[in-house]
Amino acid sequence: MGYKRFDEKDLEFIYCVIGDHERVLYGENINEEYSHDELSDTVSYPDVVVKVTSTEEVSKIMKYAYDNNIPVTPRGSGTGLVGASVPMEKGIMIDTSLMNHVLELDEENLTITVEPGVLLMELAAYVEEKDFFYPPDPGEKSATIGGNISTNAGGMRAVKYGVTRDYVRGLEVVLPNGTVVNLGGKVVKNSTGYALKDLMIGSEGTLGIITKATLKLLPLPKKAISLLIPFPSLERAIRTVPLIVKSKSIPTAIEFMQREVILDAEKYLGRKFPDSSADAYLLLKFDGNSTEEIENAYDNVAKICLEQGALDIFISDTSEREESIWKARGAFLEAIKGSTTYMDEVDVVVPRNRVNDMVEYIHNLYKEVDVRIKSFGHAGDGNLHAYILRDNLSEEEWNKKMKDAMEKIYGKARELEGQVSGEHGVGYAKKEYLLKSMDPALIEIMAGIKKAFDPKNILNPHKIFQE
């Protein structure tokens, strides 16, 4: 599709809408960070970056872009991993990071309404101070809520509490033509027409731009305890996970990790992990309203782990120990990144009872493709992260081996009835694997949905399934 090339006249209009010229970056004033996201090597600069502060500004810019056929890319913190916020057709980038206000805490309805630029860590801290709990817990705490909603981010607590979609009650959205709509609301039940709110969640900025979100809160659990459980091998650790899931004591989180990733994290953070002598670990978290309640929950799980060959059970029942363990877990991505010259990642998800098959396959794949692969993930919900490392490979060798490894991992996930992405999305970088894995009839339906929302295809083009 031919788009209008952004010019001085378009810039003048944006200056007119955005009275403060410091919130408009143009040409050489655009920072390099706006050309890419956190991991993907997908790179493209926008013609202009607009740091919006209101729904009205977003609406006016979208209406102008729609009328003039100018492509628009929404962006939050840029912490994505699949190129979803990269402006492939240049044009206008709408940066929502200054829309970062908490608008309302409704204690009667157990909801909080925020702008999209509020950071996950800011939201979590704000509600916890008031004895509430926002359960979604993606690894990147500096991501924006708008970005979390756009990718339906998951995180470590999904085993017990679910993912971002389960906590979005209502959205204010600016459509591609500039129209402002409200989807959902504070109601708990809603069977009124098509579930357009749920369609917006996970759409990666291709259907509309989120300008407000009303989120569900829970009462804050009074106590949390983690178990760090070393195993003699990765296979032993992973084969224990389905038994834990089947037990009646469901942890908040079930993470798996290998010793080599822990050593990377120790080096990156400059501090020791509580234990790094075993080959593999399960990290479990339990929460509740009393120590007795939690102990009753984890006692059964600890027995299961010991029966399956666990070497020990380390109980982390102080805030200092908790922070030490989970800070290391949160640093895994950056630690692996720092251990090589470049990496690409796979974010597959498989049924929970097949997670051991997938982990063992990835663990042994390096022998077949002759490239280093490190993995960790949310074993309790079947979402696994595999990182393919370039090290000192030439560009030609890297492209060949990386593609080979990805093809095999995604192929295995399909074989195990899994999906391309559990929480990072598809964006630009992973769409070829989505197209290979999805029924063409469903791609056609998605294309129809995109056309209904955005007939001119100006909003975040070339993402998810679009050529």
From TrEMBL:
Keywords: FAD, Flavoprotein, Oxidoreductase. Signal peptide: none annotated. InterPro entries: FAD-bd_oxidored_4_C (IPR004113), FAD-bd_PCMH (IPR016166), FAD-bd_PCMH-like_sf (IPR036318), FAD-bd_PCMH_sub2 (IPR016169), FAD-linked_Oxase-like_C (IPR016164), FAD-linked_OxidoTrans_Type4 (IPR051914), Oxid_FAD_bind_N (IPR006094), Vanillyl_alc_oxidase_C-sub2 (IPR016171). GO terms for molecular function: FAD binding; oxidoreductase activity. Its cofactor is FAD. It comes from the Bacteria. It holds the Pfam family FAD-oxidase_C. Residues 42-220 form the FAD-binding PCMH-type domain. PANTHER family: GLYCOLATE OXIDASE SUBUNIT GLCD. This is 2-hydroxy-acid oxidase. It comes from Clostridium isatidis.
